[in-house]
């Protein structure tokens, strides 16, 4: 067994990976919805193709930041091929830590007047 | 969830599913179905955004899939490599053995490729080399395959042809070069002015010959070969423009050649034809029968070899009709065109094919051996692999990891092979130079390196994939750790087959090496008809018409030298390519001839005392004497083969024969047979004429002495130049060296094949030993029961030994069947024995059986030390 990893050891996350964690922050979703939400929330700036999305999902599953959910929607609404994913406790903690890290970076940018007044 | 072919899927869906196959199988099995569904949804969205959006979606999807596939494969590879290195470190001795076996085999195969690449595959190192044609004059009716051209003939072919672009000539002479630090004998290539332009050679310094250099009364010029320039002038470029004396004339060095293999012979310097006193002499210029030049040409643009051959045939036909005395119909006459590249590779090709086949067999054997070892190791790792399966690793994943381990071992073996083949370069150049002047082209090129790497990768897939295939046959991963007996039985059978294959390959290599060694022993022991030790030989060219006086004086003075026991002259000394003695049609009196038999004895000229010097015996009659001259009646001595052939009753003495001039020549003696053209060539009919009666300007001298040959050689050269300062002394060497040079290529071929066979035997012995060690380990329980029931250890050992013998006989049978079929293709390295030599086959099988028994006894002897009680308790 390897050593237990600290939250900090996961950071920094790649933007795509962080977006996937954020997409799952408010509940379990399947792959298509995750990609759709990321595109919508970023105004189509971040669009994850199927290959990229599932590469990220596999990595998050391997690192236990997300898990597969056994809860399924009504049978009539369900597509059996779809899997639903949700954040694990670790995943939530890592997402929070990344958000805080970005907040600190943002604060630093403000303090250094890197951001213009309209962004302040 | 795997995606299956869906006939109703759209074309885009089918393409996407095809792209999914790029992903690792585990990834695919887990996510493919879901990805397919997401793709369909995303595609619907993209279609709504117009064509540009759809095109961009397709591009992003493809790019994303490929990037993910690469990342996933890379991750798996890193994991497997890391795991592989951990295993290698853990089992270091095993790792070292496997790498050594593969290294030797890959090294041998790479070395074989290196030679084949340089000699057979790569173009000639001259810009015009691949278009160069050699013109060979033949007298097919009397077996002369390469009669040099005379100046007259060169002029005819040069002026009358319509298909050849440049007809150039070359001949080799030895001259003295004065003006350097000390006088030097230099091998000189005498060439046409455009010789280097036709070859496409650009000089390193200075220039090559110009047309003006080859005109009568032109200032004599020289070009130095790179090696001679380095050796004699320490690579000083200022030598260009330097003046040196040769043949009593001042010569100016005008250029230095680059370091390329010289063609058609390695020489020290080059001169244009007008500068050569022999070539520009009256006789050479006007005598059509003064044959001494080699001729080369290039084809005109858009002319095929067949068209050029037809053109040259017409010229030959015209010459036959115009000069019937020079080209008598009885001897036949034609000219053959042969690409130079083929000619240069002609001699080494069959030997190279035998060695390459041997290296290939060794590689196969090494792969079979290592596959067996890895299979045993996979069995020893049953528990670990089962745990990996339980933790979710699929069969494909396990297979992939085993192949990666195999490839890692093979790449490390390939590294060893790389070093071995690279360090054998010098040895290979020396070996190859016995056959072809292209030997200097041997290099460890990027192609050779690529071959080594690709071969290693291929071996890795084989040795890693073999055990993986074996594992997949077993119920290991479906039934967990159960059913071990079935697993062992299947694997043991596979490993036994692999060992039998090694035995079969070993026996083929043993037979190959055996045939080659027996040939060498035969050639070393063969009675060549002469005693080479203590003989010094040299070839002498007399350039003026006084050659009879020259050679008479030379014989008298050398015979008077202290320590010289005897001396003699011959038109050709044995085992020497020089000389143009050929067979001539003869009419015999009182001979027993078969129906349609036409005697064609080879005619040679010798002086009195030559046979005694050579160590040949006069069996009947007498030797020539000083009284056998052109003023007396011509007489001849024939060899034993001719005497027995035509006068089997032993009464050849006093019989007569006539050559084309119709004069009857009485036979005054019968001499023992001498193998003139090769130790592997049976004697043919030969008739000797007296030098006194038919003197020649070019003769070889043989001196038998008890003194050191080095001292004598200096005296011989001094005497020759004292008699005639323009005489050329060439090829001065002890007869033992002539014989050793002839044997050298056969000796090295035998050495290579023997090394391959010994390696094969060692590898196979380790395979048998490993198989038996594992069998003892696997059958401990059975052995324990048998010992407990009263069987003696020797009885158990014998029963297991029977298994080894059964395998050995199986391997022997398979190997013999192949060796028997391919033995005839070994004719390039076999002589004096039959290719299917029973002794070689017998010794090879005996050796293999002995090695099989010895190598299995080591693990089997452990049985004697086993305690059945302890065995049964632990089992």
Question: Would you write up a description of this structure?
Answer:
Chain A is mainly alpha-helical. Chain A has a single domain (14-74, 81-111), classed as Winged helix-like DNA-binding domain superfamily/Winged helix DNA-binding domain (Arc Repressor Mutant, subunit A, Orthogonal Bundle). Helices cover 47% and strands 8% of the residues of chain A. Chain A has a three-stranded antiparallel β-sheet. The longest helix of chain A has 23 residues, at 89-111. Chain A is globular and about 55 Å long. Chain B has 25 helices and 22 strands. Chain B is an alpha+beta fold and 875 residues long. In chain B, α16 crosses α24 (838-860) and α22 crosses α25 (868-874). Among the domains of chain B are: 11-78, no CATH class; 129-346, no CATH class; 544-725, no CATH class. In chain B, the strands form three sheets. In chain B, strands 14, 15, 16, 17, 18, 19 and 20 form a seven-stranded mixed β-sheet that branches. A six-stranded mixed β-barrel of chain B has the order 3-4-9-6-8-7. In chain B, 41% of the residues are buried. In chain B, a hairpin with a 5-residue loop joins β3 (164-178) and β4 (184-191). Chain B is globular, with a radius of gyration of 36 Å. The longest helix of chain B has 44 residues, at 735-778. Residues 1-5 and 475-486 of chain B have low confidence and may be disordered. The A-B interface holds A 30-32, 35-36, 47-55, 57-58, 79, 81-83 and B 1, 16, 23, 27, 30-31, 33-39, 41-42, 45, 57, 60-61, 63-69, 71-72.
Produce a short descriptive summary.
The complex is a heterodimer of chains A (120) and B (875). Chain A is mainly alpha-helical.
Write the SSE topology.
The complex is a heterodimer of chains A (about 120) and B (about 900).
Chain A: H1 15-23, E1 29-30, H2 31-41, H3 50-62, E2 66-69, E3 84-87, H4 89-111
Antiparallel strand pairs in A: 1-3, 2-3
Chain B: H1 11-20, H2 25-48, H3 51-90, H4 92-121, E1 132-139, E2 144-147, H5 151-160, E3 164-178, E4 184-191, H6 195-199, E5 205-206, E6 221-224, H7 226-233, E7 243-246, E8 249-256, E9 269-272, H8 282-286, E10 294-299, H9 305-322, E11 334-339, H10 340-346, H11 349-380, H12 382-390, H13 395-423, H14 425-432, H15 446-473, H16 484-525, E12 535-541, H17 547-559, E13 564-570, E14 587-588, E15 602-606, H18 610-614, E16 618-621, E17 636-639, H19 640-646, E18 656-658, E19 664-671, E20 686-690, E21 698-705, H20 709-723, E22 728-734, H21 735-778, H22 780-788, H23 793-822, H24 838-860, H25 868-874
Parallel strand pairs in B: 4-9, 6-8, 15-20, 17-19
Antiparallel strand pairs in B: 1-2, 1-10, 1-11, 3-4, 3-7, 3-10, 5-8, 6-9, 7-8, 12-21, 12-22, 13-21, 14-18, 16-19, 17-20, 18-19
């Amino acid at each position: 067994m390897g050593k237990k990893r600290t939250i900090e050891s996961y950071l920094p996350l790649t933007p795509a990976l962080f977006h996937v964690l954020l997409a799952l922050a408010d509940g379990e979703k399947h792959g298509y919805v995750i990609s759709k939400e990321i595109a919508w929330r970023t105004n189509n700036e971040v669009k994850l193709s199927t290959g990229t999305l599932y590469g990220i999902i596999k990595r998050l599953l391997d690192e236990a930041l997300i898990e597969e959910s056994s809860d399924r929607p009504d049978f009539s609404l369900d597509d059996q091929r779809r899997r639903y994913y949700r954040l694990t406790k670790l995943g939530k903690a890592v997402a929070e830590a990344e958000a805080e890290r970005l907040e600190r970076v943002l604060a630093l940018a403000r303090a250094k007047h890197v951001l213009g007044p309209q962004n302040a | 969830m795997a995606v299956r072919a869906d006939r109703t899927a759209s074309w885009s869906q089918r393409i996407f599913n095809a792209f999914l196959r790029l992903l690792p199988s585990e990834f695919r099995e887990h996510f493919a179905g879901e990805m397919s569904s997401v793709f369909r949804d995303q595609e619907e969205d993209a279609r709504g955004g117009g064509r540009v959006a759809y095109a961009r979606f397709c591009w992003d999807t493809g790019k994303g899939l490929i990037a993910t596939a690469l990342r996933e494969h890379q991750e798996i590879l890193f994991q497997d490599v890391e795991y592989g290195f951990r295993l290698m470190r853990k089992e270091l001795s095993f790792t070292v053995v496997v790498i050594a076996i593969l290294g030797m085999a890959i090294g041998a195969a790479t070395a074989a490729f290196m030679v084949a690449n340089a000699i057979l595959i790569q173009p000639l190192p001259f810009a015009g080399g691949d278009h160069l044609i050699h013109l060979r004059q033949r007298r097919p009716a009397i077996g002369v395959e390469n009669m040099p051209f005379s100046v007259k003939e060169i002029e005819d072919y040069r002026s009358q042809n319509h298909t050849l672009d440049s007809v150039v000539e070359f001949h080799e002479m030895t001259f003295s070069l004065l003006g350097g630090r000390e006088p030097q004998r230099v091998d000189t290539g005498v060439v046409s002015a455009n010789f280097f332009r036709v070859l496409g050679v650009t000089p390193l310094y200075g220039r090559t010959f110009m047309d003006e250099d080859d005109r009568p009364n032109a200032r004599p010029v020289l070009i130095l070969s790179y090696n001679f320039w380095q050796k004699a002038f320490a690579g000083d470029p200022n030598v260009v423009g330097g003046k040196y004396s040769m043949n009593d004339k001042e010569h100016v060095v005008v250029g230095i050649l680059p370091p390329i293999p010289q063609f058609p012979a390695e020489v020290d310097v080059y001169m244009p034809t007008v500068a050569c006193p022999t070539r520009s002499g009256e006789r050479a210029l006007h005598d059509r029968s003064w044959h001494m030049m080699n001729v080369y040409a290039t084809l005109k643009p858009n002319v095929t070899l067949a068209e050029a051959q037809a053109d040259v045939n017409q010229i030959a036909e015209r010459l036959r009709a115009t000069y019937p005395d020079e080209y008598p119909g009885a001897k036949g006459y034609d000219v053959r065109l042969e690409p130079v590249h083929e000619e240069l590779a002609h001699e080494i090709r069959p030997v190279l094919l035998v060695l390459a086949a041997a290296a290939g067999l060794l590689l196969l054997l090494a792969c079979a051996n290592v596959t067996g070892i890895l299979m045993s190791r996979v069995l020893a790792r049953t528990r670990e692999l089962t745990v990996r399966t339980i933790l979710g690793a699929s069969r494909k994943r396990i297979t992939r990891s085993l192949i990666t381990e195999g490839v890692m071992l093979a790449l490390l073996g390939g590294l060893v092979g790389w070093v071995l083949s690279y360090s054998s370069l010098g040895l290979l150049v020396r070996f190859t130079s016995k056959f072809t002047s292209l030997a200097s082209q041997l290099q460890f090129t990027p192609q050779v390196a690529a071959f080594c790497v690709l071969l290693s990768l291929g071996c890795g897939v084989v040795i890693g994939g073999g055990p993986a295939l074996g594992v997949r046959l077993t119920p290991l991963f479906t039934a967990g750790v159960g059913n071990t007996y079935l697993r062992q039985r299947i694997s043991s059978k596979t490993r036994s087959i692999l060992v039998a294959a090694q035995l079969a390959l070993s026996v083929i290599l043993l037979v190959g090496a055996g045939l080659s060694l027996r040939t060498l022993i035969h050639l070393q022991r063969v009675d060549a008809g002469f005693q080479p030790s203590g003989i010094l030989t040299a070839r002498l060219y007399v350039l003026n018409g006084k050659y009879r006086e020259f050679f008479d004086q030379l014989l008298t003075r050398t015979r008077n030298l202290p320590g010289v026991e005897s001396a003699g002259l011959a038109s050709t000394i044995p085992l020497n390519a020089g000389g143009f003695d050929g067979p001539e049609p003869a009419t015999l009196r009182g001979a027993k001839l078969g129906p349609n038999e036409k005697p064609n004895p080879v005619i040679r000229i010798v002086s009195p005392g030559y046979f005694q010097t050579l160590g040949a015996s006069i069996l009947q009659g007498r030797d020539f004497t000083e009284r056998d001259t052109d003023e007396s009646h011509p007489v001849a001595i024939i060899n034993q083969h001719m005497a027995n052939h035509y006068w089997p009753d032993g009464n050849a003495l006093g019989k007569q024969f006539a050559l084309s001039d119709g004069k009857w020549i009485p036979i005054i003696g019968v001499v023992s047979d001498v193998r003139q053209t090769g130790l592997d060539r049976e004697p043919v009919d030969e008739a000797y004429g007296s030098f006194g009666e038919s003197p020649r300007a070019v003769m070889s001298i043989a001196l038998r002495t008890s003194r050191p040959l080095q001292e004598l050689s200096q005296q011989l050269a001094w005497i020759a130049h004292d008699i005639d300062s323009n005489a050329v002394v060439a090829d001065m060497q002890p007869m033992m060296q002539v014989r050793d040079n002839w044997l050298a290529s056969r000796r090295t071929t035998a050495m290579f094949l023997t090394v391959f066979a010994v390696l094969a035997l060692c590898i196979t012995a380790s395979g048998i030993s490993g198989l038996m060690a594992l069998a003892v380990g696997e059958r401990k329980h059975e052995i324990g029961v048998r010992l407990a029931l009263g069987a003696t250890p020797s009885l158990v050992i014998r029963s297991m030994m029977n298994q080894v013998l059964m395998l050995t006989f199986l391997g022997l049978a398979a190997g013999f069947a192949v060796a028997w079929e391919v033995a005839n293709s070994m004719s390039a390295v076999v002589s004096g024995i039959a290719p299917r030599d029973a002794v070689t086959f017998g010794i090879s099988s005996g050796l293999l059986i002995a090695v099989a028994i010895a190598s299995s006894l080591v693990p089997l002897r452990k049985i004697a030390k086993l305690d059945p009680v302890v065995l049964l308790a632990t089992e």
